[in-house]
Automatic annotation (TrEMBL):
Native source organism of the sequence: Kitasatospora phosalacinea
InterPro entries given in the database record: Thiolase-like
Example GO molecular function: acyltransferase activity, transferring groups other than amino-acyl groups
Superkingdom of origin organism: Bacteria
Residue ranges, annotated region (Disordered): 1-20
Protein name per Swiss-Prot or TrEMBL: Beta-ketoacyl synthase N-terminal domain-containing protein
């Protein structure tokens, strides 16, 4: 999943059809727990345990976003009372903040919506290009790219799916005389 300008430090996916563990502070949807679970797997593979602060950017890519929370907000709005927790979790950066806090990641946090969902087990090319830019910018030493797609309520798209890859800048070869 790396590009010519990046190298992969770790990769993970969440098995389709397997529900992610509950995530305290998030309700009514599997989207945020899915993002946190695949991020946890990838960061554990790359870093081991949470520890000292790391200059790692977080990049979430999802073409469909959190469909279940959007539906819960629509339903709540029809009753004219919005549970505050739903508003909080409707921001995709909320779960990224949770991951950053747990792992002490100090890089930029970005959420994008590519035009199409990535194939299962992959991250979209748009996200990889943005990861290259984040590394080139110098604000992070690594970028955790997460692609997450939640099944539509009709489940015609199949089960929820997520993949993550921890990237670093590729080593630059230097010419010698």
């Amino acid at each position: 999943m790396s590009t010519p300008r990046t190298r992969t430090l770790a990769a993970a996916h969440w098995p389709p059809g397997e529900p992610p563990p509950p995530l305290p502070g998030f309700s009514a949807s599997t989207f945020n727990p899915l993002v946190a679970a695949v991020a946890e797997r990838c960061l554990a593979a790359g870093y081991g345990e949470p520890g000292e602060p790391r200059r790692t950017a977080l990049l979430l890519a999802s073409a469909g976003g959190d469909r279940a929370t959007a539906l819960a907000i629509d339903t709540a709005a029809a009753g004219h009372r919005m549970p505050p927790l739903l508003f909080f979790q409707s921001n995709p950066n909320a779960v990224l903040g949770h991951v950053a806090s747990r792992w002490q990641l100090t890089g930029p946090v970005v959420a994008i919506s590519p035009p199409e969902a990535a194939a299962p087990g992959e991250v979209p090319p748009d996200a990889l290009e943005l990861a290259e830019l984040l590394l080139a910018d110098g604000d992070a030493d690594h970028v955790l790219v997460i692609a997450a797609e939640q099944a539509a309520p009709s489940a015609e798209q199949g089960p929820d799916q997520a993949a993550a890859v921890l990237l670093a800048a590729a080593a630059v070869a230097t010419a010698t005389a």
